[in-house]
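Let us practice reading a record.
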Amino acid sequence: MDEVLCQLGRQRAADADVGRHRTEVPRMRDDFSAADIGVLAKRAGMLCSNPNCRQPTSGPTQHPGKAVNIGVAAHITAASAGGPRYDRSMASDGRSSIENGIWLCQTCAKLVDSDEGRYTVALLRQWKAGIEAEAASALESGRPSAASTINAAVVIQGEGAIRISGPNAVNIAPGGITIVGPVIQKK
């Protein structure tokens, strides 16, 4: 028993010594590069790619020279074995490539990794294509995407009256419709 413990101690010491002299540590996960993370965020217009969310993922902090990011460059197929939607036939370079990434808010990133049966590779690729098409359309038209302009709360006020509050507020009452604030319309 003592010999086994001594061997284990020698192996740990050898591993630690090798670690000090190594210039590269083997990767356990196939992570995205910092440059690819930035590109993923920008290609999604800094919005969550989930079409049912579209949460903005970046904004200002109190410090004028800083911004906060709540977005995540998530893997469509897992970065390592045992992860959600792992594809063993995919090479390491493919797992860490921008093509295998999708920009999500932190909530949606957790959601898609917690229910991989619902959030399939095909669905995530569809979301990615959708947000990139919206972002391209917004650039070409000079207008924000439809998803980014919807920021409202709906309140049923009784007797058929409905109030939609937010930057583009609308009151719908039995007597007519009142629009409060700017309304962005598509051509």
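A brief commentary: Strands lie at 58-60, 67-69, 71-75, 101-105, 153-158, 161-165, 169-173, 176-180.
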